[in-house]
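Example 3.2
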Amino acid sequence: MRILIAVAPLTAHLYPSVPLAWALQSAGHEVRVASNSGLTNEITATGLTAIELGEPPSPPPPVGDEELEHFTDALGFPAGSDADQLWRATRYYKALNYKRYYPDDEGRQEIADNLVKAARDWRPDLVIWDPACPIGSLAARESGAASARMLWGPDYFGWVRRRLTERGYDPTAAASADKDPQAALLAPVFRRFGRDFSEDLLFGDFTVDPLPTQLPRPDTLRVLPMRWVPYTGTAPVPLWLSRPPSRPRVVLSLGVTGRTVHDGRDERVAAALEAVAGMDVEVVATVNADQLGPHPHIPDNVRIVDYLPLTQVMPTCSAIIHHGGFGTFFAAATHGVPQMIVMEELGSALNSTRYLEARSAGVVLRGDGITAARMREQLHRMLNEPSFRVGNDAVYADMTAAPSPTELVPVLERMAAQHRVRD
């Protein structure tokens, strides 16, 4: 069987699919991963075959008030609302609407054309695509392959579609098509291939979902649960990491977002370094010079490492301080490591924090709570109170209740045979 995996050009979108790609490849199937050329090195570093779709995109400009107001009105939230669902959706649609992945109309066509052409030429049996790469759905339909989304975080598209449907939006009706922000966003690229916007294209035949079932999700879609198996990149294991720590080891990591979104010194890093100074812990801080800022004070018990795969260091850790991304969250949860999330109002952190708190598996600091004194106090709790280990045992049980990627392979084989269409 041939499987094409299409992902947006971000490691946070690639990495969750890697264990499933390995499982499929190990079962004897051919696997190729398609994305922008900016992700090619990361794809090949996983041992998978890459398909380059075009040049990396430029960052989007800020969302304009008119676009935000239109989106807010369509979802039925009041102006200025900070509802979590609205923010998650707006963030995602901002990226797509301002062509974060399609830097201009020409680039949008180039990327879509290249992916569809690759699928038509190679004729996969199954296309697995990242929801942020909805042209993967086109590639599946244009090549006659079965079409499967694979989530890497909350189902933004599913939540928004359900909300719009509840409010009476029907993108197939002329009267509402131009008012439906979801249809307006994706219909142009779908029409280029002679296809109308539809839920069939938006969601595919089924969705592979690696999130524990305890997290909220739209309840109208066909879902295949899968265990999240962390993959966080590759690098040689440093010699110091081969030795067991002599005192509790704490990791500080703010993920890719922390390296790209924040311009200059990140105050969360400064607060964390001040918090751990003098504590009887060994700290591994995976931060770069920009995050540290000019003339940082590095305590004696802190080791600065520009990059280190979290899956290497997590087995030796007693706690982690991070930004709330799902990749980091599940890398820690797999090893039962209590977590402190220093909350930023972006993306999946809004979901992982609720889950963390509900399971008593860590602590969440928001806004004014992100101070050195507060971080020190909460880190001391995490290292000494047994309840955090109990909470992490519950998270681990949630995760391992779903089939592993290897166990999912025969299910995908059956689903591909059921849904693929050949001329």
